[in-house]
Structures are given as structure tokens and as C-alpha cells.
Amino acid sequence: MFPRYDDVIAAVPAYERFLSVDEVEASTDRLLAAHPRVEAWSAGMSRAGHDLRCLEIGGGPLRAVLIGVPHPEEQVGTLVLDYLLESLVDTDLAERLGFSFSVVRVIDPDGMRLNERWFDEPGDAAGFLLRQYRPAFVDQFEWTFPIEYKNYAFAGPLPEARAVMRVVDRAPLDIYMGLHNAHGSGAYFYVSHDDPVLNDDLAGVLDATGLPTHRGEPEMPYLRAFRDGIFEAFDLRDDYEYFSRYGVEPAAALQGGTSSDAYAQGVWACFTLVAEVPYFTSPKAGDRSPGGLTRGEAVLRGIEVERELAKWLHERYVQAAAELSGASPWQRALHAYLTGVNDDLRAQTEMVAREPFFAEEATVAQLFSSLYLREFDLLEHVGHLASMAAAEPRQNDGLAAVRTACEEKVRERSAQLASAGAIEPTPLRTLVQAQLAALLCALDAVRERYRPAHPRLRVPRA
After folding, report:
1. What is the pLDDT of residues 256-277, one digit of tens each?
2. Are both 75 and 62 inside the same structural domain?
3. Could you list the residue range(s) of the whole structural domain that residue 10 is in?
């Protein structure tokens, strides 16, 4: 499947755990000491004062920017970059690819540290859901890039976003990739342009690695699919139009700014890729056989599950919040979810009522995503509540009761969903191979087809 890079993909180690921030930094230090031709410069500082180093590795006339840990619980990219960087400096891979690379290995080290509690047991679904941390939307660097669109504007990029802007703006750019990954789903991709050859290659990546293609409901309900599991990249303008179309005032519902992908493409008209490989998956995620319900019935059942869970969370959030001496990252994340969930559910319900395709029979994959994967992902909010209660220095019986209730709910429901949905953890080696192979295929596509047809249109911002 990867004749040019079989040697690279086959040599990926059998990882058992994720690296900590300190381990990534130590690896970078060793790389710089052993390879003087690798340059490092400071793109900025994180909100907690951690130096955000960008590594520069030569190899070809085209330029790729790779950003690790775009969301702090998305850790597959730390292993991909650890392996890829060694390959770029120890072999002729960079020259074979024809690219030079600008790499920030961890763009959100502060949030990553809050996730380190589950890194040693990445296959424990309940442990992941209870211990992972995903920031509130407005606290995610990935969604704080400047945008002006209709009656909405955002001009307050976080320090980490400003660092990425410096990396992007530094020199002409051909491809940008934030190394995201999914929690529970089939595997899928976002690309900036519809390239049929690359689409075939990406489908081949999933076949070769044994990952099911995500054929259920898409991550965002308005996405445009080029083919199964390959979607056109989206940004905040798409959120705006979605809310506006289905009866929610966008300026009230939206938070933050646009994405790093949209920023990079706006500056350089470059290619962008996201490879969403899942920590947990199931053969049902790609099953096209009939599901026995209409697509709309399945989505509405999922909406009702979320509405009931949000009510359960709100009751216990109010109970726990009264006992807190101050805010925490988990409190901010949970508060943001509970504040926005009603607008989200209202728009989804209206979409089901209006769009005729929801009257069609759902496939098993669509049923699975609406009734199993949706709740599986929602349990992360229960985990945030448990962490919020545990983080309070002044513990009492009320906080202990909230934490116990959350832990019991996550362990019980995650086990039931995994059993009924045949949900299993994906081996880390498979995740790394799939994400790395997707990147290599995209680099070939940009070098061979994209750049000659799409000259740079803009200059970097001052």
C-alpha cells in the first residue's frame, strides 16, 4: 500500500503508553544535541510560561508545518512526531519527501499536563473518560484564531495561537497539519481540497491498518463528504451558517475564533490535513447494513440521551459548585458545555425536522454513532465533573458524593456501551502508523499535484 514508505511505516514501534510533557522535552533536547543541523527557536510561551519551541529540519524546497497536541487530550501526534523526527534526521526521508519541516511538538503543554493521569493506561476507556481534560471551546488554542464574518468577530488569539501564527507566517507554506485524533469513532480525515488520488490513498491507509472507516453521523452535522470518511475541512464560518439556518442566533451561540487550519490556508492558500484516528473503535462504525430505524429517529434518541445527561450533570454541578473555593480548568470546561448545550440540541432537532434525508433508514454505522458513540463521548463531561470535585482543596462529604456518583456512572455506562457496541481500544502502533501514513500520502499529493495547480495567493501578515 505504501511502496515508497513501507520501510518507514513497518518500523513504527509497538508503543504501550503516551509520553509526558517532560519526556517530550527531554527527547527534543537529545535530538538537538545529536543533530546540530536541526534548529530550534522560541515561537512563544504558553499561558503558564512554558517555552513553545519550533524545530526546523531541512530537506527540500517545499515547507510543511506540523503542530502536535492541538487539543491536550489528543496524544497520538506526540508518538508520531517522536518517531518521524528521528526518521527525518537519521535517514534520507526528508529528501525523499522533498520537504523541510517546521514542527512544534506540543503546542498546549499546560493542558497536556492535566491529561498525564491516564497516559500509562491508554486502553482503559473508563479511566480515559474520567481523567482526560478537554478545555472549554474558548480555552482551546485551536479555535482562537482571528476571524470577521457577517455580524461576528473575534480578535483575541491565545498565546499558543499567536505562537502558531508566527510559525505559519515565517515562510511560504505548502501544507499544514495539526495532529488531532478522535476519542471514539471510526477513522476519518479532513482535507482542504478534493484530490481523488489522495482520497484513494487515504482509504487505502485505513484498509492497510485495519481501522474501520467512519460511516456514521459526522462529527459536525453540516460537513461535506468527498467520499466515505473524507470530509472537506471546516471552520467557524460553517458553524455560523449552521446555527443561522436552524434557528439559533450565531453571534450568541458562537465562542472563540476560527481554526488554525483556516488561518494557515488564509495566509498561504496551502493544503491542510487532519487525520482523526480513534483511541476506541468498533466494526459497527463502518457497517453500511440497514439499522432498523430512520436516521432521524436515531439522532433524536441520541439527542434525548444528551438532554437527560445534561440535566443530570447540571443538578450535580450546581451542588458541587456551591462547595468550591475557586474556579478550575474542569469547572470552566463543564460550565461552557452546560451553557451551550441547549442551543446545540435545538439546532440539531430543527435540522432533523427540516432535512429530508433524515427520513431514510439509518445504517448500522449511523445508528451506532447516534446511540453508542454519542453517549460514549458525552461521558467525558461526567469525568470533568469528577475532576472538578476532586480538585477542590477543601474536601467534604458533598463533593465526595458527587465524585463517587460520577465515577460510578462512567464506569457502568462505558462498560455497557463497550459491550453492546463491540467498542475496543485501538493499538497505539496502529494509530501511529495510520496517522503517519496519511501524512506521507498528503505530502506526496502536495508535491506531485497540488502545488503546481495552486500557486501561493497571499503574503504573510506583518
Report:
1. 999 999 999 999 999 999 999 9
2. yes
3. 6-282+425-453
> Is the same domain home to 299 and 447?
no
The number of folded domains in the chain is: 2
Q: Which residues pair with 275 in a beta bridge?
A: 189
Q: What is the pLDDT of residue 59?
A: 86
Does residue 227 sit in the same domain as residue 81? yes
Q: How many CB atoms lie within 10 A of CB 460?
A: 14
Amino acid of residue 174: D
Q: Are residues 58 and 14 in the same domain?
A: yes
Asked whether residue 162 falls in the same domain as residue 140, the answer is yes
CA 22: distance to chain centroid? 22
The angle subtended at Cα 241 by Cα 236 and Cα 244, nearest 5°, is 125
pLDDT higher than threshold 70 for residue 452: no
Identify whether residues 398 and 340 lie together within a single domain: yes
Domain match, 414 and 434 both? no
